[in-house]
Amino acid sequence: MRIGITCYPTYGGSGVVATELGIELASAGHEVHFISYSQPFRLNGRDTGIYYHEVPVSNYPLFEFPPYDLALASRMAEVAEFYELDLLHVHYAIPHSVSALLARQMLAARGRRLPFVTTLHGTDITLVGLDRSYLPITRYAIQESDGVTSISQYLKDKTLADFGVTRDIAVVTNFVNCNVYDFIRDEAARDERRLRFAPPGEPILIHLSNFRPVKRVTDVVKVFARVNKEVPAQLILVGDGPDRSAAEWLAHDLGIHSRIHFLGKQERVNELLPLADLMIMPSEMESFGLAALEAMACKVPTIATRVGGVPELIDDGITGLLFKVGDVDSMARGAIELLRDTPRLTEMREASRRTAQKRFCSTLVLPKYVEFYQSLLAR
User: Fold this and answer.
1) Domain that holds residue 106
2) Mean pLDDT in each 10-residue stretch from start to end of the chain (379 residues)?
3) Which of 33, 77, 320, 379 has the fewest CB atoms below 10 angstroms from its CB?
4) Is residue 142 part of a domain?
5) 348 near 318, Cβ under 8 Å?
6) Phi and psi for 164 in degrees, rounded to 5?
7) Do 207 and 99 sit in the same domain of this protein?
């Protein structure tokens, strides 16, 4: 198939999933065309069968804000016609679904069919979509999509309830390439690579996000501060965003800045995750929790919050520990107990990898998307 994919190319879960999906589809022999305002950050330009089409946005004095959604719709229609795309797959409802809807209508007027799939990722529903000014257009775009998928049962149920959507929504979970995200089998090599961040014997905690307020990065620092008092440790913070400065100041005020490694945005997180002992994900809301899944595939259990779709991913007490939002004391106690109980931590590490392999590997999830595409094209 020839598939057009549109996503936000920035550092976030929806962009990561869309990019990884395109890479997996291309490796399976399909032709993938990314259409966005900049190249998705995980694309390296070396993947066979992947093409990128930039959306040019003009700045006219008349427009206070550039009309990206209209420029995107026009570019979608152009790429679909020039490269004979079979369908579009848009990630994030606003504005991508609306743009895809316009592109479909533009081509229909020229006698060409272009179905599109919308994948709901979370904040397009929980935050943007519930802004009353966006609710009608979000509902309409979802309703008019040729197919809709959701990354968790939680998000599907919330969409149906909050938007009054009457159409079917298929749950196709996020996924991870279990060959790329893997643990280090040579313990000596792992120990040597860990020396970059921690002296021998000190555990390493890690957090990965876009540092938006919903990720509660300062809670990560607070949890680590409590853990470090009982068990001297190191913290790796991967990512960047609006709350990075607050996290840095808090680390400085707590006197633990020298034990925290602010790495900023990193493309090869699969090389960092296997070095950690625990992932910390204290989010206020997660519709799935992709960072936790990537960690699980690398044999790293997660200390997380019991919100959204997280309980669908993490089995409390088996592949991680779940707590209330903001309960940094309990999260720290849970982390300390695990770090002091090597057999239990080892068992949880094994269970994490096993769960990723049995339920969330790309080899299991990719065929679901392909089957979904084929069902649309067969109509």
Assistant:
1) 2-175+361-377
2) 91 80 94 91 77 85 77 95 96 90 94 95 68 82 95 93 89 94 95 96 96 96 98 97 96 97 92 98 94 97 97 97 98 98 97 97 95 94
3) 379
4) yes
5) yes
6) 65, 30
7) no
